[in-house]
Amino acid sequence: METVTTDREACWLTTESSKPRTEKLLLSLVGDAPMFATIRRLCQNHAAKFFVETAITDRDTGKSNVIIGTWTSLGKESTPNLGSEGYTIFSEEGRLWIVAEEERGLLYGFYHFLKEIQLGTPLLEISAQEKPANVFRMINHWDNMDGSVERGYAGRSLFFEGGSFTKDEDCMRSYAELLSSVGINALTINNVNVHEQESALITNRWLPEVAWLAKLFQEYGLTLFLSINYASPITIGGLDTADPLETSVADWWERQVERIYGSIPSFGGFVVKADSEHRPGPFSYGRTHADGANMLAKALKPYGGHLFWRCFVYDCLQDWRDRSTDRARAAYDHFAPLDGAFADNVILQIKSGPMDFQVREAVSPLIGALKQTKHVIELQITQEYTGQQIDVCYLPPQWKEILDFDTHANGKDTTVADLVSGRANGGFGQGMTAVVNTGRDENWTGHSFAQANLYGYGQLAWNPKRCLHAIAEEWADRTYPYLPKNVRKTIVSIQECSWIVYESYTSPLGIGWMVNPGHHYGPNVNGYEFSPWGTYHFSDRNGLGVDRTRKGSNYVSQYAEPVGSRYENLQTCPDELLLFFHHVPYTHVLTSGKTVIQHIYDSHFDGVEQVKAFIAAWESHKQELPEALYQHVRVKFDAQLANAVEWRDQVNTYYYRMSGIEDKHGRTIYR
Amino acid sequence: METVTTDREACWLTTESSKPRTEKLLLSLVGDAPMFATIRRLCQNHAAKFFVETAITDRDTGKSNVIIGTWTSLGKESTPNLGSEGYTIFSEEGRLWIVAEEERGLLYGFYHFLKEIQLGTPLLEISAQEKPANVFRMINHWDNMDGSVERGYAGRSLFFEGGSFTKDEDCMRSYAELLSSVGINALTINNVNVHEQESALITNRWLPEVAWLAKLFQEYGLTLFLSINYASPITIGGLDTADPLETSVADWWERQVERIYGSIPSFGGFVVKADSEHRPGPFSYGRTHADGANMLAKALKPYGGHLFWRCFVYDCLQDWRDRSTDRARAAYDHFAPLDGAFADNVILQIKSGPMDFQVREAVSPLIGALKQTKHVIELQITQEYTGQQIDVCYLPPQWKEILDFDTHANGKDTTVADLVSGRANGGFGQGMTAVVNTGRDENWTGHSFAQANLYGYGQLAWNPKRCLHAIAEEWADRTYPYLPKNVRKTIVSIQECSWIVYESYTSPLGIGWMVNPGHHYGPNVNGYEFSPWGTYHFSDRNGLGVDRTRKGSNYVSQYAEPVGSRYENLQTCPDELLLFFHHVPYTHVLTSGKTVIQHIYDSHFDGVEQVKAFIAAWESHKQELPEALYQHVRVKFDAQLANAVEWRDQVNTYYYRMSGIEDKHGRTIYR
């Protein structure tokens, strides 16, 4: 127990149990698809630990108490239509059946079974009928071949080190289990910013290594994609152009794709960041993003490959003096006019908000605006702007708000979840992707609690309607089975309010940014105020906020009605997004009844108190906690408190100096 | 002429001449000290280029027209008392005599002769009687063994690359000529921040290389010093302490010094940055700086070595919330109480201002406060905070103001120059040192004009009373002999106002900082406002500035009277230092008659116009300039203009947003 926090087992796939079982597991794995080997391995490494004895047979001997197989292999008549990834678990004749249409469904069914076993559910009470809401449940690694991870807060890259592949099979299998256990079915292994070394991942120099990884992940239902450099025809192909309408360029890509699929029949396709933050793209040739994406998609098409094309395209060399440009408009302005112009294996990848993964943003108006173009939503699991796995910030509540947001794109009740799942738009929604938060740290995510973000992402990607509280409890129960229930309850309650707490002591009322430039940790109110990144708060002695109304940048008009009008109107704009949409005086009264300035003071004082409360709660359990876990979390909490105090004081002082308005409650604001 | 700006010759030691000579040079070098070989080499490589024919003999044949020798070697009776570095040049019996007491005087005399030759002075009209005002005329390199230069803007290190010495003899000799030609007589070759690699410079691994360099520089009258790591007994000595009062530590240093002098008899000693910006020092052991310095000085003493101990000691982990601590007080508070406690071969090294080489600071009150402790003033030639050799900023006017500053330390007319030269304090002043601005760039200093800062430093270190205008003209005449006089005049006039121009568009009225953290180039009004570095402007909606009066941090009381009172009093405090000493409202009226806010606006608008005027002047000479020089300077000017515009707009916008006060002249201030 002492080493729990520095142990790869210290996650929801732990083999510890709070309730020891007294049964034997007599498992029949009926069938011979490759996935059965995976399930057998999972059974031996995980499920078997919970039973007094385990035996696995490859046919139903009649003595087994759990039978796994496809409807076909079991000779049963398929009843529910759960697709290739769905599964059914039921008991019949005193035995438990895990049945699916295809082998990937069996894998997910087995994980469901494993979860219930961990949680102590009696064997014959396990019951499920599941299919994922989303086609793609993807993660994106921002890993570089030198072993660094862009925006990584959990140690070095899992895949790369020193310019090469780590090729650590045990680690890779553990990681594949981690991902597939929460239903993730696709991943990219390299950074969307594809630098020189990584541009060569598609060459014969590295393809065997990529193929090795792809095959390993495929055994867990995970399809491997690569991020590519749009300028590859030049940088590695020896051409003098990457113009998508040049035949030589299209031909070059066709040859590359043919070669890749020759090595990796299961290859998923490419992810591309083009014409964004100094990355090359079709704009260099006066071509559209559709031109660029379709050319690549055409090369992938014969092999069933997909092209993920990121919509994170904006002017990152904006002039802060230029008040006519609004970065928030960029994704919509670039891509909405191209709706319908993309090939059917192009999937646009849309960041959840119009800026960049701030603690609070409006939902991207591009989601809902695309009627005839495949797309996924992109979230950020890694806590770039939300505490960097030092501060606790459990993000599923944020994601849930986004997924539940009613875009009104096809009238009322057109939620983001229904759009991205394709339910509300005839299948153009293709699911979800997210920048992942994992690395070589023994606990995978730097902060033990941050694992819950990966867990929650998988759960919501599978079923966006799932109860948040159930997710949090399930994660805690599985991860810390050895802790008393009341301790797990504390952990869950900390997690559940942590996003709002983080928001309260950082940038106020949806304005975002105010972070230290570059690394993005800690406060710096003016850190991006005079930068070229389009990220401003426009605070002066009278007020603050960005005017995105019709009189301002008119960003509000990118939303369907009545959403746009709700944001346009000061009276109906939600408090938490007020400064994202409006420039208001410090004395403006929020719907909460507080003035903006008093809200800034109150939320920043409160945020620090909340972090202190986290620490007090943690301390109250000190005797019940293993020393290593206690210390691990305590050290993080201390750093979080220091960060929260610094945020509180810098933000409060900044706005006191600006506004000259005293705190109504006379608390300490440094002059 | 095309490559003039990328040629090592493109400096004041150029062998081009505006006025070709028709004489022969028949030189007798009478004597055989090692320095004669140096002078012979200089004559061949430099002076000879100006004459139609040159012959050098090692005795006076009677036919020579220039004779160089000591009073002794020439068998003449010494008349003026010019010390070991002084010299006399006079004509007698139709021949020119360069005579000195010692060989170093001959070297400087020869450089004087060379300068006059370059400038076209007729041979027999050359006449001089010179001795340096300062004992030490030193420069400090902040070079690291990996080849990088801390705060270097002129390329890679001259001495180091890739963890080793460059050992490029030609380059080293050229560089030694450059330094000695302006009278510099001592240097450190490595960064005062002594990292792991450089800590080993005093070990046998590197001593042969150091010795090689020391010997080479010695040939040019330059004494080599090393920056050392105070914690060396631990980091390289294997001891578990660096406590200066531990016998084992003192013994260890004695053995090191003995070994060093065994290899390098001419070795100058050590420079130490201790207990400063995370460098180790005696504070770790509860010892004083005197304890630390004296222990090292004792080891150096038997060999005539000196210990330079930097007074740049302050709390770099200050809390911005703590208004009771004032970094400006630190050097005085640390060192004034120790006056008299240092060994006589310890030389305290005092930064010219109390902060850190800002464009405008008050003079350090520690200069004048030390009555019984040897010291030098430390300047910064490299333009860390003054444009980084992108913006033109000719610094001798700043240094001259500092040197001419009347500290009143021993009553009226106790100037800094007289203190640091020792004239006003019985020899405790030991001269000047400065962080140098040179590197491997072909023109030595990145910006061709920035050479003038090194030239001017040498001139003022030799003679602080020298006319600034003469220095600037002399530098331009020697460096650009091929340019028409009117072009040189333009260059001189740009140089002479460049410091004030730089000041006008950067941080106002002595407040300093407002730069981008880390690299220190470009504006960032709040860049250091909430940092731990003790560098604040305390701007709020009503006013700005740091209260260092008796009611504030009482820093003013560190000055002798009436200086302290002059700063204390709002009416007598000079405008240019107002915000360094006082927190005032934006509406405060300066002695200039302008309000503070209008001064901020005016100076920032004016600064940009001045840079435009520089460019216009340069353009007006385009036809007269060699293309390479034209382009080199034009590219720098364009970057300077962009920088000035950014400073103007960020500072003006920041203070407009803060104060809400309009510019009286209605110019564009972005909202």
TrEMBL record, chains A, B:
Gene3D superfamilies: Alpha-glucuronidase, C-terminal domain, Chitobiase/beta-hexosaminidase domain 2-like, Glycosidases. Pfam families: Glyco_hydro_67C (PF07477), Glyco_hydro_67M (PF07488), Glyco_hydro_67N (PF03648). SUPFAM superfamilies: (Trans)glycosidases (SSF51445), beta-N-acetylhexosaminidase-like domain (SSF55545). GO terms for molecular function: alpha-glucuronidase activity; xylan alpha-1,2-glucuronosidase activity. InterPro entries: A-glucoronidase_C_sf, GH, Glyco_hydro_67_aGlcAse, Glyco_hydro_67_aGlcAse_N, Glyco_hydro_67_C, Glyco_hydro_67_cat, Hex-like_dom2. Residues 445-667 form the Glycosyl hydrolase family 67 C-terminal domain. The active site is at residues 277, 356, 384. The keyword Hydrolase applies. Residues 118-444 form the Glycosyl hydrolase family 67 catalytic domain. GO terms for biological process: xylan catabolic process. It catalyses: Hydrolysis of (1->2)-alpha-D-(4-O-methyl)glucuronosyl links in the main chain of hardwood xylans. Keywords: Carbohydrate metabolism, Glycosidase, Hydrolase, Polysaccharide degradation, Xylan degradation. Residues 55-113 form the Alpha glucuronidase N-terminal domain. The keyword Glycoprotein does not apply. Its EC number is 3.2.1.131. One of its GO terms (cellular component) is extracellular region. Signal peptide: none annotated. Homodimer. Belongs to the glycosyl hydrolase 67 family. This is Xylan alpha-1,2-glucuronidase. It comes from Desmospora activa DSM 45169.
